[in-house]
Structures are given as C-alpha cells and as structure tokens.
Amino acid sequence: MKGWILACSLSLMASSSFADTNPFSYVPKFEVPEIASGVGFLDKQREAQIGTKVYREVYRVMPVIQDPWLEDQLFSTFSQLLTQTQLGKPVGLLLINDRQINAFAVPGGLFALNAGLITHARNLDEVVGVMAHEVAHVSQRHYSRSQEAFKGQGLLALAGILVGALVATQGSGDAGTALMLGSQAAIMDKQLNYSRNQEREADRIGMQYMYALGYNPQSMADFFEVMHRETSRVSFLPDFWLTHPLTSQRMSEARLRANQLPKIHKPRNQEDFDILKLYTAVISQQASEQKLLSLAKQNNFAGQLALAAYYQKSGDYSKAQDTLNTVKLHNKQHNLISIIQTDIYLGQNHPDLALNTIQSIAKITPENRALNYKLAETYIRLNQPNEAQKIVQKFVQKNPQDVLGWELMYYAANEDKANPLQAVDVLRYRAEAQFWSGLEQEAVKSLLQAERLSKDNQSMSAKLKKRIREMQQEITAKI
C-alpha cells in the first residue's frame, strides 16, 4: 500500500459557524427541476456503480489526501448541500493533493475537490459555490441525460472524466490552474452547446442551493472572477478547459443572478475558514514556514495552529510543542489542538501522554471520526488492538469504503497476537483497503489467501467466499 494512504488526523465542523441557517425573513421560491424523482431503480443502481468504480480509480491514480479532520470539515458542508436535493447517500467526497483549482462530480454522488480550490478561496462561501455547482450536475443527472442524448458514448464519457481530472494532476503546479469547474460538461467535446447549457444550469441551480442554506450567492460570481484571473497568468490552456470556457457571458449571468437575491447580512466566522485554508495548505505542502511564521508573529490563531501542524508534520516536535503552547494561550477550544498534541507525543514515542490527551475528548464525542481515529491509532501504539478495533469498526460499518478505517483495522489486527484468526483478519482488512484504493485484483488475491487459511472455520470461510463474489461482480460489472 502506498505510504500516503495512512495519515491519521482529526473534526471541527460541529461548530455552529459552519452550519448557520438562512438569516433572511424573505426567501424566494425557487423552482429546481425534480429530475431525480423520475429516475428508475435500475438507473440509480447503474449510476451508483459508476460512482463507486470511479471512486476506486481516483484512489488508484490520484494523490488522495487522507486526513480525517479535513475530510470531516468538507463533508459536513457538502452534506448540507445534499439536503437541498433528492439525491440519496453519496458515494463520497475526496480531497486531491493538487494546488490547481479544480472540482469534479461523477454520477452516483462521487465528488472531488483539489486542495488548491480551498487554498485559492477567500472564504467558505466561495468553496461552497463550487461544491453547489458540482452537486447540481449530479442532481440534474447531466451525465445520464447527455448519454441519453448521445447514445453509445457512456464509457467514453466515464473515461473522459478521469482523463480530464488527471490533466490537472499531471500538469505543472507553477503553470497555473486547469480551471475545470463543471467537469462533466467538458467530457463531450462533440456536444459543446449541450454541455455549455448544462454548465449554466449547474451555475443557476447551484446558486439556489447555496442561497437556501444561507451562503452568499455573490461568492459564486466572485470565485468565477478569481478563476478568470488565473487563466490570464498561463501561456496555455488544457483541452479540457477549451471545451467549456468560463465566458464573460457566464460570469455576467452569475453576477446578475446573485444581484437579484436579497443580501446576506449574517457574516460567517472567518477564523474558522482561515484555519481550514491554512491547515489544507500545510497538509498539501503548499505552506511555507516563512509565511506561517509571519502570521504567527501577528498573534494570528489560525496561523499559529497551522505552524504547529507544519512543524509536527516536518518531524520537528520541539518547535511544534513550543508553537502549540503559544496556541493554548488563546484559551480557545479546538479539536486540532488535541490532535496535533497527540501527534507530537506519538512522534516523540510517548503514547501514554498521547492517550491522556486524546482519550477523554474522543469518548465525549464518539461520532467524531477524526478524534476517534486518533484515539485508535494511539491504542495501536500502546499494543491495545482490541480497543482500537472497537472504535474503528462502527465507522467502517457505516462507510465500507473508508480506506483509512480499513488501514487502521489492518494495523490493529497485525498487533493482535492472541487472536487465533489473526492472519485471516490481517488479510481481509488489507483486502478492503486495497479494494477501495483501486487495487482490485490484489484485494481478491488477499481474500483468496484468507479463505484458504480459514478452511477450518466454516462461518468465516463462508463470509470470505461471499465477499470474494461481491468484489468479483463489482470488478467485472459493465457500466
């Protein structure tokens, strides 16, 4: 498994500032086409297959960031947007370690954001504008409607999504941004007019979604202008961008649409977003020590917290501790403080101190994946694998494609020397992590090996045979 798959960290989105309700007394009545209500079961099933297949492919070929705290922050906001739609449970939301501005969506509810989208944004509302645009693509079934309109190009379109997404990842970070907002439209270069209409529809409906939740619709238009400025800094544009340019007409329409809505009067907590933005920059290796030091010297809480994370990730635990001590002087409660402190102690090989730091806060909030995964990691370091597995099991049961969760289960099983089925558990947990990270054939091989080792345990053998069949069916499914 690739080293970057396991990177345990952290959740703050429980804070009310990221989940405000609409502050207006007047809310316009929007008319969003109820496309999903007319979709049959087989159509939805097929779209879910597409989403999970691409999920595994993205994991296999792209640098997915595994950081529970970041994932939880973004997924909480993303879940708010989904409440405005008739979409069911999404496949997931992935964060890609790329500094270019990009987001894309896939049928079935798979959404992906580049780290560069967050680090270029100036507030949470701008990020939500991009998310809302992509959610609108899926809720309006643009992929499926395009396939129906242009028969025989389904698989080509699916491949196009991946190729288009990879354009940004493989490009030079210094070259600028790929600017692939609204990626589903761009996969069909022979249907440009149809695709551009879908882009405009996604802009319109996405703005309605974000406004209904109390986010500033002006931010969608603002971020269009940010992206437009980025294009002027590059000497080339990828083919993907040429298929659906951010035209002045589209920018003007977004601004006009936002101007027609009542103004947002309740500002959000900018410090919360600054923490999210700077921490993303640290995790994606976009932050410089000099910049963070400059912010820290200004007694900037977000800057100091990010600097502590920067030193901790760099392995300089002494500086990380000194910086975190300064952070604590602000007397602010923040989950990142506990998580970074735990990581410092683990890095210094003091798992007992790490447990004292993380145990109580994690147990108070058992639903918090970030805190509890850090507690599970600490238990593994303390050679208490059963305690770790009890924590992680409930999360992977709720979300079976949680790669980091299966990685933790694997590491815990590897330490469980007293378990008579240790070798079987190690192999089956490893198989799940392999499967959902795109290593499909390797996953099946791991399960086959586990099944051979469990031949004397009929119950476990039957369970493994069933899972092998399920994996093989998903691998060979024609979508």
Low-pLDDT residue spans? 1-42, 149-153, 172-194, 234-244
The N- to C-terminal Cα distance equals 27 Å
By DSSP, the count of extended strands is 3
**Count, helices:** 23
Proportion of strand residues: under 5%
Multimeric status of the protein:
single chain
Average pLDDT number: 80
Order of helices and strands: HHEEEHHHHHHHHHHHHHHHHHHHHH
> What gyration radius follows from the Cα positions, in whole Å?
23 Å
Strand order in the sheet with the most strands? 1-3-2
Major beta-sheet overview: 3 strands, mixed
Helix content: 55-70%
Class from helix and strand fractions: mainly alpha
GO molecular function: metal ion binding; metalloendopeptidase activity
Keywords: Hydrolase, Metal-binding, Metalloprotease, Protease, Signal, Zinc
Cofactor: Zn(2+)
Protein name: Peptidase M48 domain-containing protein
Annotation keywords:
mainly alpha; single chain; 479 residues
Describe this structure in words.
The protein is an all-alpha fold and 479 residues long. The chain has a domain at 3-259. The chain has 23 helices and three strands. It has helices at 41-61, 68-82, 115-120, 124-139, 142-149, 154-170, 183-186, 192-212, 218-231, 239-242, 248-259, 270-283, 289-297, 301-314, 317-328, 335-347, 351-364, 369-381, 385-398, 403-415, 422-436, 440-453, 458-476, and strands at 92-96, 103-106, 110-114. It has a three-stranded mixed β-sheet, with helices on both faces. Strand 2 (103-106) and strand 3 (110-114) form a beta hairpin. Helix 4 (124-139) packs across helix 9 and helix 21 packs antiparallel against helix 22 (440-453). The two termini are 27 Å apart. Mean pLDDT is 80; it is low at 1-42, 149-153, 172-194 and 234-244. InterPro entries: Mito/Outer_Membr_Metalloprot, Peptidase_M48, TPR-like_helical_dom_sf. GO terms for molecular function: metal ion binding; metalloendopeptidase activity. Residues 1-19 form the signal peptide. Pfam families: Peptidase_M48, TPR_19. Its cofactor is Zn(2+).
